[in-house]
């Protein structure tokens, strides 16, 4: 199944979510409104709302309830991107100027704060306190993940475990609770919601590993930004960690990393990219992503055999093989 086919099936409900997203960040202040709408208009895969919608299919599906989870989770994702771009000094995202580039860092930070606040206000329309607690805890963990990424910039001694914990917090957790909270908003059985959380977690881990591979192996046209952006920012990802474990390659990689760090990332990284692309770090990272996808699909086997289950399998395969 192609992702576009799934989106076509869910088009009506996704359109409702899109309209709610735009309505939710509408504000009288023109600068705040324009900055908030800027990233929204740039588009995105909307995987988090799709996960919420599909999670809701395992319970009593009611879009009027479920949208109060789908919209906040996408807003949280959007806000985190605005803040990420400030931290990373990113000029473009999805082929568009970032908020910080079009305006400045201060506007970007306050815009991100505003979008976060809107997300938390919308979810209060659901009376279930467990939903609020799960979402709030996820925000705390995401913040820790961001701080950990900064702490490990250019840290060549970090372990695979360090990396996995970081991407769990930064990426996988939000996808996990998207599946879980969609089911909870639809009042699905607790066990179903927990299994969907596991599916979202495993898929989210694979998603980030694939993202990190794309940054090293993709093209600027595919990525909407130059390849090698991660290492320019000091972010050492799993293919690099694997490559550094090769005793023959490690000295040259360390020398190249020291050079990039000394230039504060403002240098050509093509040699570094070539070294990683030719290393076993790429194949080992691809195998790790595939392992997570297999786990995600395995979890689904315990869920009722409905169309949403097949759709989630399709998304898992897309994530495992995605090239954008």
What does this structure look like?
This protein has 324 residues and is mainly alpha-helical. The protein has helices at 3-9, 11-24, 30-41, 47-56, 63-88, 99-102, 105-123, 129-151, 160-185, 190-217, 220-223, 229-232, 238-244, 250-262, 270-277, 281-300, 307-321, and strands at residues 92-93, 96-97. It is built from 17 helices and two strands. Helix 4 crosses helix 9 (160-185).
Mind sketching the topology for me?
Blueprint: H1 3-9, H2 11-24, H3 30-41, H4 47-56, H5 63-88, E1 92-93, E2 96-97, H6 99-102, H7 105-123, H8 129-151, H9 160-185, H10 190-217, H11 220-223, H12 229-232, H13 238-244, H14 250-262, H15 270-277, H16 281-300, H17 307-321
Antiparallel strand pairs: 1-2
Helix pairs in contact: 2-5, 3-7, 4-5, 4-9, 5-7, 5-9, 8-9, 9-10, 10-16, 10-17, 13-16, 16-17
């Amino acid at each position: 199944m192609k992702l576009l086919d799934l989106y076509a099936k869910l088009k009506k409900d996704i359109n409702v979510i899109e309209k709610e997203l735009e309505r939710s960040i509408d504000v009288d202040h023109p600068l705040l409104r324009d900055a908030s709408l800027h990233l929204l208009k740039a588009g995105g895969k909307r995987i988090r709302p799709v996960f919420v919608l599909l999670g809701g299919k395992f319970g009593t599906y009611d879009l009027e309830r479920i949208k109060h989870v789908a919209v906040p989770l996408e807003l949280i994702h959007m806000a985190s991107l605005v803040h990420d771009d400030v931290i990373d000094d990113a000029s473009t995202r999805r082929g568009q100027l970032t908020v910080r580039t079009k305006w400045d860092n201060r506007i970007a930070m306050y815009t991100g704060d505003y979008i976060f606040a809107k997300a938390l206000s919308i979810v209060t329309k659901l009376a279930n306190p467990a939903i609020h607690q799960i979402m709030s805890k996820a925000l705390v963990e995401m913040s820790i993940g961001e701080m950990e990424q900064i702490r490990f910039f250019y840290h060549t001694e970090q372990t695979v475990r360090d990396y996995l914990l970081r991407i769990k917090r930064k990426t996988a957790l939000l996808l996990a609770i998207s599946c879980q909270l969609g089911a909870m908003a639809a009042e699905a059985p607790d066990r179903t919601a927990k299994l969907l959380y596991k599916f979202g977690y495993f898929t989210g881990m694979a998603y980030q590993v694939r993202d990190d591979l794309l940054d090293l192996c993709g093209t600027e046209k595919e990525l909407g930004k130059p390849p090698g952006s991660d290492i320019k920012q000091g972010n050492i990802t799993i293919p690099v960690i694997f490559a550094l474990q090769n005793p023959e390659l490690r000295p040259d990689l360390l020398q190249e990393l020291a050079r990039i760090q000394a230039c504060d990332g403002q240098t050509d990284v093509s040699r570094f990219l070539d070294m990683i692309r030719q290393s076993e770090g790429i194949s080992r990272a691809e195998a790790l992503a595939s392992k997570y996808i297999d786990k995600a699909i395995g979890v689904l086997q315990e869920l009722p055999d409905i169309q949403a289950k097949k759709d989630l399998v399709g998304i898992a395969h897309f994530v495992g093989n995605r090239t954008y």
